[in-house]
Amino acid sequence: MQLTLEFGGGLDLLCQSVKIHHVDVTPNVENGKLTLRDLLSWVRTSLIKERPEMFMKGDSVRPGILVLVNDCDWELCGGHDTELEEKDVVVFISTLHGG
Amino acid sequence: MEEGKRAVGRLCSICSQRRPALKRPKTLEQICRECFYAVFEEEIHRVIMENHLFKAGERIAVAASGGKDSTVLAYVLSELNRRHDYGLDLFLLSVDEGITGYRDDSLETVKRNEIQYGLPLKVVSYKDLYGWTMDEIVKVIGLKNNCTFCGVFRRQALDRGAALLKVDKLVTGHNADDMAETVLLNILRGDIARLSRCTFIMTGEDGPIPRCKPFKYTYEKEIYAYFKKLDYFSTECIYSPNAYRGFAREFIKDLERIRPQAILDIIRSGEDFRISSSTRMPDQGTCERCGYISSQKLCKACVLLEGLNRGLPKLGISRTREAINGSERLHKTGRLPKAEAERPILQSKPCGNLEF
């Protein structure tokens, strides 16, 4: 599944200082679906090169990191269970440092 | 795109027409982008009016770092000033700490903002004011207390810049999350003097340049959502390991995830604290050397600067009074009397952001 991932607010530093990643993520083999939960663990293993604890806490993103799916607050589209679709844009912005 | 499908078919709870894009932490309402911009601006306007932050004809400096808070603040204030006819003369005021690869980049953002919003910009630098850049200071003192130097110097630099601009007030972009964090930190440090005033929306009204915080009740999340349409700079300060504040910050965000209202409740708690009358509060005076407001003989910036210039950079950074008064005594008696140990004088602020 082709997705665009954006990392902002310093999170880009965790993935080689690249802010925008065009990625191809394989959906779940059983149901062919890809949820935000699946994507988080994929990002953690495949994209984050250092200090993963800056991105994840437990099995979620760290509190203070905003997640947007196609410009929509992830709290509105189902949180972890949001089902992603082809060409979706997912944005992660850390608010944990100053502005 | 088809975000509507994901938003469970619901509509914006304000206009009932468009798909919601944001869940407001303050009210848990689900609202669309257009309504969000409108209520965001309207709330800031209300805070300004209810607290009588400005008077017509005043000259106001926006402390601008190029980061999200001050960028949104400068933009919203200039919009509201036009829309509601506040009659304010607005300026941008930036501090150049002299941090290569950080502040020089963010200053470029402020310079663009100057043009985009048509607000005159004044930049004051540590090098000009103190003779040292942060890069030079870090070379001498290392990465341990650098945030102390930066915070103390910035606070004063802003006042000096504001005086040069001859403004009546300085506004800063401190938001609700910042304030909740500061309330907690002041409790953790037992800093009663600061606890009692850190929630004031306006401070220093008796001094030459009052400061105010129009974003006192504004959630950081909403500032991010708002500034998505603006030009801003976001990179962490390269010298910023302020661990203690970091923990407080993370704790606040943990609470927010469970119950967003917690942030406003912490601010409310801070506001409602009653400080016992037997608590001794420091007397405000002025610095003998530079005339800046100070509760000691010398202001914190002068003590720190003296340490730097004399090659004793540790001077003034410990929590006891080893500021000038103490260090003189130290020379005479060889030790610092225990009773002199005192509340910390400085406001240790993290760097890289708007913590002035």
Automatic annotation (TrEMBL), chain A:
Location of this chain's protein in the cell: Cytoplasm
One GO cellular component, as annotated: cytosol
Principal subcellular localisation of the protein: cytoplasm
Crosslink position(s): Glycyl lysine isopeptide (Gly-Lys) (interchain with K-? in acceptor proteins): 99
Entry-linked SUPFAM superfamilies: MoaD/ThiS
Pathway this chain belongs to: tRNA modification; 5-methoxycarbonylmethyl-2-thiouridine-tRNA biosynthesis
Reported function: Acts as a sulfur carrier required for 2-thiolation of mcm(5)S(2)U at tRNA wobble positions of cytosolic tRNA(Lys), tRNA(Glu) and tRNA(Gln). Serves as sulfur donor in tRNA 2-thiolation reaction by being thiocarboxylated (-COSH) at its C-terminus by MOCS3. The sulfur is then transferred to tRNA to form 2-thiolation of mcm(5)S(2)U. Also acts as a ubiquitin-like protein (UBL) that is covalently conjugated via an isopeptide bond to lysine residues of target proteins.
Name of the protein described by the UniProt record: Ubiquitin-related modifier 1 homolog
Taxonomic lineage: Eukaryota, Viridiplantae, Streptophyta, Embryophyta, Tracheophyta
TrEMBL record, chain B:
Localization, UniProt: Cytoplasm
Claim: ATP-binding is one of the keywords in the record: yes
Domain tRNA(Ile)-lysidine/2-thiocytidine synthase N-terminal: 60-236
Cytoplasmic tRNA 2-thiolation protein 1 C-terminal domain segment(s): 285-315
Residues holding ATP: 63-65, 69, 95, 173, 178
Protein's GO biological process: protein urmylation; tRNA wobble position uridine thiolation
Keyword Transmembrane appears in the UniProt entry: no
GO molecular function per UniProt: ATP binding; nucleotidyltransferase activity; tRNA binding
Domain of life (superkingdom): Eukaryota
The enzyme's E.C. designation: 2.7.7.-
Pathway entry: tRNA modification; 5-methoxycarbonylmethyl-2-thiouridine-tRNA biosynthesis
Keywords noted in UniProt: ATP-binding, Cytoplasm, Nucleotide-binding, RNA-binding, Transferase, tRNA processing, tRNA-binding
A cellular component annotation (GO) from this entry: mitochondrion
Family according to the record: Belongs to the TtcA family. CTU1/NCS6/ATPBD3 subfamily.
Family matches, as PANTHER family: ATPASES OF THE PP SUPERFAMILY-RELATED, CYTOPLASMIC TRNA 2-THIOLATION PROTEIN 1
Name of this protein: Cytoplasmic tRNA 2-thiolation protein 1
Name of the gene encoding the protein in the UniProt record: NCS6
